[in-house]
Every structure is written in C-alpha cells, then in structure tokens.
Amino acid sequence: MTAYSDVYVSSVMRAQGKMFLIIREKLIGVDEKWYIEAYMQSKIRALLDEGNTKYVNAPSTELMLRFIEDECGGQYKRGAEWGGFIPEWAGKIYALYQWKYNVSSRSLILRLPLIEIERVFPALHQAGWEAAVDRIHESVIM
Question: What confidence tens digit (pLDDT) does each residue in 53-78 have?
Fold first, then answer.
C-alpha cells in the first residue's frame, strides 16, 4: 500500500529532486550529502511521508529554507558538492520509493544510504523512475 494518494507523488518527486539540486546555488558551500541525510530525517520530510498538503504543495525553495531555519537554526554544514545531477536523481528516487513502499524517509536513508545511491546510479539513472525503484527494492533493500 502506498503512503498517500498518488495525486501528490509526482509533486513530491519534482520538488525534492529540484531541492536537492538547487541547494548548491541557494546554500553556497553546503555539504550536499549532509543536507540530504539531515533532510531525509527531518520533521518536514516526515510530514511529507504522510502526504501533508501544506508541504506537498510547497515550492522546493520554501521547503529548503524552512528546513534550514526551523530544524537547523539557520545553520548548515559546509563541505563538498556531490556533483552533477545525482542529487536530483536521488531526491526523486527517495520520494518515489518512500511513497510506493510506504516506508519512512528516516528509515529509508538508513536502508538506502547515499553510498548505495552512488553505486546504483550509473546502471539505473536511465531506467525510468518506477523501474529504478523496483530494482533498488529487489537488489539493495530486500
């Protein structure tokens, strides 16, 4: 059973993918991996896990700024850029996986760490979202 109505999943995928890509522009010098890991374990992401319409319909920039302000006290860890489009792909994969398999984002980031995203990206980034999530579920998480 999915986490919430399928009406919202594409919005969450789009917003989260975009957010993970634009953090390098909006939060200059941010450690992108730190951000993604912290965000996936945040209260805001937990509300998205439930399909909370206030957050599902929020623009990615607003979610990003709210997370930094409300949950990180306006501060963020500085560090390396992850590079390329992998953050966007990871954001969409995490959002679709969370929805499809109804697992909390907090649990998902622990079961599917960024090192695994890096490992499967070359083979799956052109497979299509559903196919990539299903293959990840079968080969990485199960």
Answer: 899 989 999 999 999 999 999 999 99
Distance CA 99, CA 15 (A): 14
- Residue 16, domain extent: 6-141
For the chain, give the number of residues.
142
3 touches 51 (CB < 8 A): yes
Is position 1 within any domain? no
Q: Domain count for the chain, please give it.
A: 1
**Reported pTM:** 0.94
Residue 77 lies in a domain: yes
Query: Is the CB of residue 33 less than 8 Å from the CB of residue 82?
Result: yes
More confident residue, 8 or 142: 8
* 28: nearest Cα among 81, 84, 69: 81
Query: Cα(first)–Cα(last) distance of the chain, in Å?
Result: 17
Among 43, 69, 50, 67, which Cα is nearest to 12's? 50
- Residue 59 belongs to a domain: yes
